[in-house]
Specification:
- The structure is a single chain.
- By secondary structure, the protein is of the alpha+beta class.
- The chain has three domains: 100 residues, 3-Layer(aba) Sandwich (Rossmann fold); 70 residues, ATP-grasp fold, A domain (Dna Ligase, domain 1, 2-Layer Sandwich), CATH 3.30.1490.20; 244 residues, ATP-grasp fold, B domain (D-amino Acid Aminotransferase, Chain A, domain 1).
- Strands 13-12-9-10-11-14-21-19 form an eight-stranded antiparallel β-sheet, sandwiched between helices. Strands 3-2-1-4-5 form a five-stranded parallel β-sheet.
- It is globular.
């Protein structure tokens, strides 16, 4: 096991990693920006080192700054959390070149799975179902029309290097294709410095279901059930639950086995997520792989009684995972995660930074709150708006729903607007309570929040 690890992130995930390191008897060095000097992660760290100003490009996204901090404090490894440099293969290689262990997969695997059209071809080779679409990238408008003729409309044009809905456009007819194709390439170029796109059949009214995977260097590769992440706004998740109310045990097994095949095909190690689109008829299709821990990992921890972050650290240290003997997992109860963001839901989720004049988190049976914030903390406008994650567990979905409503009402936040009103409205929606939730849930059932 390592003796000292650098945490190269901020917010609740930085604090989450610090806690895991401390439970393993490892010293935590937190690299932070000037704007984050007062966060809980910095307060709980054994060593805190400022690596730059508030701007991410000069701090959290600066590979020299992060590597320099790790070397200066004689760290043995770096945990990248999620976002920032967590899926940056150049950073993973820089860690290796400086004698640091990157707590994640190999750089070559990040490259292979991060380029989405190549990832899709890799999954097809592994026998993982994929959405009908182009064989690789559609480099010209003529190629795009040829693919559309073959797979039919509606279709989806997606940035090969993309994520978060950027560089993604729908085309429902031949008349719409040229504009959608051109716009997707332009957005991709601006967002990712790469205008390559590929095309897929548009799966209508899908669910977004992802499978948590874990693999070590001893040949153990397992899945830890699934999460349903269908409640989204502009492809950004707001509510996640595990297990998915749409899956039968048989479908869960098939989806989990497909995810494990994907992991083995690419020689993956550490924690990752295979994301699928689930059709109404029970068909599922590979969408992408996230080569890192995810924001919503706590719901998986709740229904499998595991600590995914500690397993990440053990695997990176060259140890076998401790939970392989418990696989295959079956869900134990039901869990939800509600992202409490500093956003004004009365004004189309407008960012709402500010100082927390009151911050009282809920408690009681089955309630967990992951947060870096506290009363008096000033939420900066520079970063993601996530303030806290409310995670609730119940022995049944019905009990989890009741606890969620109770906990959301107990949450007291003053000084900023948050997404709590949206979450309470979702809990009152009949379709949500029945588990009949698709990726168009918000515009279909709660369109007032998009005004």
């Amino acid at each position: 096991m390592f003796s000292r690890v650098l945490v190269a992130n901020r917010g609740e995930i930085a604090l989450r990693v610090v806690r895991a390191l401390h439970e393993l008897g490892v010293e935590a060095v937190v690299a932070h920006s000037l704007a984050d000097r007062d966060t809980r992660a910095v307060q709980e760290a054994d060593i805190a080192v400022c690596i730059g100003p508030a701007q991410s490009a000069q701090s959290y996204l600066s590979i020299p700054a992060v590597i320099g901090a790790a070397n200066a404090w004689k760290c043995e490894a770096v945990h990248p959390g999620y976002g920032f440099l967590s899926e940056n293969s150049e950073f993973a290689r820089a860690c290796a070149a400086n004698g640091l262990v990157f707590i994640g997969p190999d750089a070559d695997v990040i490259d292979r799975m991060g380029e989405k059209s190549n990832a899709k071809q890799t999954m097809k080779a592994a026998g993982v179902p994929t959405v009908p679409g182009s064989d690789g990238e559609a480099d010209t408008l003529e190629e795009a029309f040829a693919v559309a003729e073959e797979i039919g409309y509606p279709l989806l044009i997606k940035a090969s290097a993309g994520g978060g809905g950027k560089g993604m456009r729908e085309a429902w007819s031949k008349d719409e294709l040229e504009r959608a194709y051109t716009t997707a390439r332009s957005e991709s170029r601006v967002a990712f410095g790469n205008d390559a796109v590929y095309m897929e059949r548009l799966v209508q009214k899908p669910r977004h279901v992802e499978v948590q995977v874990l693999a070590d260097k001893f040949g153990n590769a397992i899945h830890l059930c699934e999460r349903d992440c269908s409640v989204q706004r502009r492809h950004q998740k707001l509510i996640e639950e595990a297990p998915s109310p749409a899956l039968t045990p048989e479908l869960r097994q098939r989806m989990g086995e497909a995810a494990v095949r994907a992991v083995k095909e690419v020689g993956y190690t550490n924690a990752g997520t295979i994301e699928f689109l689930l059709d109404a008829d029970g068909s599922f299709y590979f969408m992408e792989m996230n080569t890192r821990i995810q924001v919503e990992h706590p719901v998986t921890e709740q229904i499998t009684l595991t600590d995914l972050v500690k397993e990440q650290i053990r695997i990176a240290a060259g140890e076998p995972m401790t939970i392989a003997c418990r696989a295959p997992f079956s869900p134990c109860g039901h869990a939800f995660e509600f992202r409490i963001n500093a956003e004004d839901t009365n004004h189309n989720f407008r960012p709402c930074p500010g100082t927390l004049k009151r911050f009282v988190v809920p408690g009681g049976p089955g309630v967990r709150v992951d947060t870096h914030a506290y009363e008096g903390y000033a939420i900066p406008p520079t970063y993601d708006s996530l303030v806290a994650k409310l995670i609730v567990w119940g022995s049944s979905r019905e009990e989890a729903l009741a606890r969620a409503e109770r906990a959301l009402k107990e949450f007291q936040i003053e000084g900023i607007e948050t997404t709590i009103p949206f979450h309470l409205a979702a809990l009152q929606n009949e379709a949500f309570r029945k588990g009949e939730v698709y990726t168009d849930f918000i515009p279909t059932y709660l369109p007032g929040f998009l005004a």
